[in-house]
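Hi support team,

I'm filing this because I wasn't sure whether my run with cytidine-5'-triphosphate finished correctly. The job status page said complete, but I'd like someone to confirm that the output block is well-formed before I use it downstream. Pasting the exact inputs I used:
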Amino acid sequence: MQETGEWNNHVELAKWADAFIIAPATANTLTKMANGYCDNLLLATYLSAECPIFFAPAMDLDMYTHPTTTANITTLLSYGNQELPAGTGELASGLEGKGRMCEPEEITRLLAHHLELSTSLTGKTILVNAGPTFEKIDPVRFIGNYSSGKMGKAIANSLAKRGASVHLVLGPIDKGGVHSSVQVTNIESADDLYEACTSIFKECDAAILSAAVADYKPAVRANQKIKKTAEEFTLELVKTKDVLRTLGASKTNEQILVGFALETQNEYENAVTKLEKKNLDFIVLNSMNDKHAGFGKDTNKVTLIERSGKKHTFDTKLKTAVAEDIVNLLSTYL
Ligand code: CTP
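And here is everything the job wrote out:
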């Protein structure tokens, strides 16, 4: 881009666009995008954009298969950007291979598909919950779990991108990375989660509950820090309320309810039992036995099980892609 000495308003450009296509996205641009560089108008606009962003890698074949490029593309996808996949054929170097920019006709087709999808859930109000809960023991200690909330945030973002009005009830974690249109309610404990979800669900067409809710909380919360005195210390715990089960018992025939099952054994049987007991339309089974799935990871491997018994099994994918699979199935119900 030629330096004119004029200040180019990247913020205005970024806010103006309904979609942003970066084609060709060279190896250099992908590296800069993945690392937050901001040394030209394109990158400044990219960093300011809130609209859907599409990038079309284009480079020579060895550059394309270099681990740095692969890692950059993975990073950009995990930030919610969408790839316009490179094709195979003649390259600028004269060599043949993968790295050719996605054909312009294909880019137009993918964009049209995206725009069609972007209004597919307009008018629908959907509740999502995500993250852990913290159950206070005393003013300085709690019982918690390792949930990062990444899966639930990705689901909320996918729903928002399709035009749904999304309420995200989020455990005590950072709300970074959540689409700006999503209404976030931060909670801390299982009791807070119960209050927020039972109240919001009444107005919703569907709910996807992915939060890792504590099953037990301390029977008594000490007002002062518990001092170290006796050799042994026993903490009495009582059951928390099951949010998903409560929503399942109260839901109307028109409301769609989706739950998660985190299992370490008899996965399928346990998931089906949860689906029935909690009156769900479908359940997302994720196995703790899969090394690419689970708390804190960027990838997940899930099976979606419908009430009819129909099973949809997927390969390990980025959580953003898993969210698309879950939202695709939900969309068939709405
Ligand atoms: N869930 C909930 N409220 C709770 C516990 C769980 O809403 N108090 C929801 C979770 O958000 C998830 C589903 O129930 O969607 C299943 O959670 P999971 O931990 O797999 O199962 P539990 O019902 O807690 O049963 P168990 O721990 O015995 O497997």
